[in-house]
Amino acid sequence: MMKALVYQGPGQKVWQDKAKPSLLQPTDAIVRVTKTTLCGTDLAILRGGVATCLPGTTLGHEGVGIIEEVGSAVSSVKPGDAVIISCITSCGRCDYCHRGLYSNCVDGGWLLGNTIDGTQAEYVRIPHADNSLHLIPPGMDDEAALMLSDIIPTGLEVGVMNGEVKFGDTVAILGAGPVGLAALLAAQFYSPAEIIVIDLDDNRLAKAKALGATITINNQDGQAAQKVLDLTHGRGVDVAIEVVGHPATCEVCQNIIGAGGHIADIGIYSKGVELHKEILWTKNITIRLGTVNTTTIPLLLRTVQSGKLDPKQLITHHFSLNDIIHAYDVFSNAAEEQAIKLILVNDVSCVATPKSANGSVQDAMIKQIVAQVLKEMV
Ligand SMILES: [Zn+2]
Ligand SMILES: [Zn+2]
After folding, report:
1. Domain 152-289 maps to which CATH number in 3.40.30.10, 3.40.640.10, 3.40.50.720, 3.40.630.30?
2. For residue 149, which ligand has an atom nearest its CA?
3. 64-119: per-residue pLDDT in tens?
4. Averaged pLDDT for residues 314-321
5. Distance between CA atoms of 283 and 333, rounded to whole angstroms?
6. Rounded to the nearest whole angstrom, what is the distance from the C-alpha of residue 159 to the centroid of ligand 1?
7. Which residues surround ligand 2, an ion (CB under 5 A)?
8. How far is the CA of 110 from the centre of ligand 2 (A)?
9. Stated pTM of the model
10. 31 near 85, Cβ under 8 Å?
11. What's the CATH fold of domain 2-150+294-346?
């Protein structure tokens, strides 16, 4: 058995015992999750906004870990290897995979913590392990690597690359949560002239400023669109990256996009939004929607290794995996808690060492050590 965070229907999650996963296909690997994290998508599931995720599913699609076991057809990883788990599972062989559309893989896509058990557990089964796991280069910080599971590739691929950010551009990012800030970091690979970040939370905007935003706007007054138009002398922005998935932010994007501009939409929508073709058609704009494919993970690994990118800047909190329910509470109150990205450290097995005669004393000591280590890490 192992511990896992199991979705039990809208608003309900339980940290419970669950059978340890086993190999189902020769292409599978079993990974012992060493660190995982929470994502806005997990909260969307818990709000009941993701119909494909059924009660009983272990949540989580981001993680790093150590390979425990591989199926007979797996050749790129072996037991003992440290790996990044891509949030997108892909076979690497189908028509879509050959076009780099891993998220549309006929036997993959966003499966983890959605249609199959995910990473918020001690162990996870990864289908198509050869294409869905990435070796962590020796010496690389595993928490930096963890940020490449989802948020950095998502900000880069779905925001910056789909938005075709280029040098000299004026870019607006709507939403300064983890993915918005990831897009902010990734946008700077291309040296845009201005990056305007819009949010409702001053703490997140301060973080955005520290991470390279040239202008921040708090839209509590609903005037963000007008302010952006004023700042750009009525021209609007070259790229608008929407990261919230709300009709209001989508509306702002349409109001601020300039001629020839690109709207790149990362947000997850649970209902339709209005598209103002009557205004936009003369502007020669492009709108891109998408899910991350994670095809950029190998390049991002090099970028982190060279020191060009420090994704650890997005990490604000550390918890023991055993405290995942508390971590969810903190993440759900992100504004109050000033939370961006929370790391969950799997010390579950460590705490549950076999009991000797004075087992309870040992357990208490181990818990104390773990608590101390976690404190120091924060
Ligand atoms: Zn995620
Ligand atoms: Zn495929």
Report:
1. 3.40.50.720
2. 1
3. 999 999 999 999 999 999 999 999 999 999 999 999 999 999 999 999 999 999 99
4. 98
5. 39
6. 14
7. 90-91, 94, 97, 105
8. 12
9. 0.91
10. yes
11. Quinone Oxidoreductase; Chain A, domain 1 (3.90.180)
